[in-house]
Specification:
single chain; 247 residues; two-stranded antiparallel sheet; 2 strands; 5% strand
């Protein structure tokens, strides 16, 4: 028998065995495969956000122009993934992926620091100066990102399940957008404050926060059909039934 999962169901894909013999190593089932793929996508999007966050770009959307960090471009995908994880696998597994992303960010910070300890050889295409030009403030970017990310993602998951309980499992669009819009505001405020509190005026930071948050809100609204489609496809492909309202 499978052991119970934190979401209240069954892991369903873990190797099993008996007291008489060793566990059997078998390929993961569809549910575990889909979960791992989404978790991998989440961590990849998070890590690349940190690595490209120092570049600022101008993005046109719905006739408006937004000035924001390049790291904001893939970041909304992390909220879509956690919403899908929450809807299909439950809060406990969504929180597990969020914590995994935090650990991955700490690891990336350590690797960047390690790479700076050793001098570049003369034949290296990337000099010490170029490396530091790109990554010398990475610790601050990652620290800001991790602070905002951990708080906002956990708040997003809590709000998602609040709306889910309140609507008795109905209105996917409300819990998708109701959780993301509020948590993205918290994320935008935290990341800009930690990153630029001693480099910009309050007016400059407020302008960046406004652009960053509005951009994320518009992207969140645009991803609503993908949330519906993703939920339907994942439940159909994995065979997982809808979770209880309080899962």
């Amino acid at each position: 028998m499978s052991s119970p999962s934190p979401a209240g169901g069954s892991w369903g894909d873990e190797p099993t065995g008996s007291a008489a013999g060793p566990a059997v190593d078998r390929p993961p089932g569809r549910s575990e495969t889909a979960f791992l793929l989404l978790a991998g996508l989440f961590v990849a999007a998070l890590v690349v956000c940190n690595l490209i966050a120092n570049k600022f770009v101008s993005v046109g959307l719905f006739g408006a122009t937004f000035v924001l960090s390049a790291g904001a471009l893939p970041y909304p995908a992390t909220f879509l993934v956690t919403d899908l994880l929450s809807e299909v696998w439950g809060r406990a597994r969504a929180n597990l992926v969020v914590v995994s992303g935090f650990v991955a960010s700490v690891f990336v910070l350590g690797v960047l620091w390690l790479g700076d300890l050793f001098p570049a050889i003369p034949e290296s295409r990337v000099s010490d100066g170029a490396y530091r030009e790109v990554f010398q403030s990475a610790w601050r970017v990652v620290a800001a990102s991790m602070t905002a990310y951990l708080v906002a993602q956990l708040v997003d998951i809590r709000l998602f399940h609040f709306w889910r309980r309140l609507t008795r499992g109905r209105h996917l669009w409300l819990r998708n957008n109701g959780s993301t819009v509020l948590s993205q505001l918290l994320d935008s405020v935290l990341v800009v404050l930690v990153l630029f509190y001693d480099r910009m005026s309050l007016g400059q930071m407020a302008a960046i926060i406004g652009d960053l948050w509005l951009f994320k809100v518009l992207v969140a609204l645009l991803d609503t059909p993908f949330f519906y489609l993703g939920t339907w496809a994942l439940q159909r492909w994995t065979g997982r039934p809808p979770l209880p309202v309080d899962a």
